[in-house]
Amino acid sequence: MTTAPTTKIAVITGASRGLGRSMAEHLAARGWDVVGTYQSRPDAADEVVEAVRAAGRTATFLPFDASDPSSVPAFAGALRARLQETFGREGFDALVNNAGVGLSKPYVDTTGADLDSILDIHVKTPFLLTQALLPLLVDGGQVLNVSSGLATFVGPGMSAYASAKGAIEVLTRYQAQELGSRRIRVNVLRPGAIATDFGGGAVRDNAQYNAAVSAMIALGRPGEADDIGAGVAAILSDDLRWANGTAIELSGGQRL
């Protein structure tokens, strides 16, 4: 009789920096192994591997360009091989669709090419990637999509980005319904403003903007990457095993 693996593996897209890196490190602290993706910074990926190793767990990275949905089948094949090579496993336990970029541009100036790019990264690639990885995702596993508080409130110049995030929230509800027969739970994370390099680092580096954002948040400050990383580790734990098809907001109480 085969014994089920006791260590869980999370696949996190965009795990070499920012929120993805924090997710990887917090999950490692809770005993998870990690497969991350990076786009252009293998050195940053190596830093995450070392941080996870320092926590006593294993991490490995694969290149992946979320802006190119056509690359999904090749990535799925590479992931299958890497799981076997690194962990001696055929599957993994959780997928976090985290990779993304922002676009701050007035609605009237947003082009069709702008919209295509944002929808590819934030909707089409997560849609197709989750499909392609379902044969590797264990029964009873999890998918966590990443949205934004901008799906519920309005930020100037964010119409394309926020629309894509609204779409991923709707997709999450359908995935939860249709994958329930395999006991796969699908939720969506809705962060508020976070002080990282996202969007050029404005929340983190611009004191005036930071103060304006802080005034919108009940707890009086923007979030930090670790606020989200710790939250993801909690969401993927068995403590939230009855959450499914749910939008989980981590914003400190941000409202406009």
Structure description:
With 256 residues, the chain is of the alpha/beta class. Helix content is 42%, strand content 16%. It contains eight helices and seven strands. The protein has helices spanning 18-29, 42-54, 72-87, 112-133, 159-179, 202-205, 207-215, 225-235; strands at residues 9-12, 33-38, 59-63, 92-97, 137-146, 185-191, 247-250. A seven-stranded parallel beta sheet has the order 3-2-1-4-5-6-7, with helices on both faces. Strand 5, helix 5 (159-179) and strand 6 form a beta-alpha-beta unit. Helix 1 (18-29) runs parallel beside helix 2 (42-54), helix 1 packs across helix 8 (225-235) and helix 4 (112-133) packs parallel to helix 5. The longest helix is centred in the middle third of the chain and has 22 residues, at 112-133. The radius of gyration is 18 Å and the shape is globular.
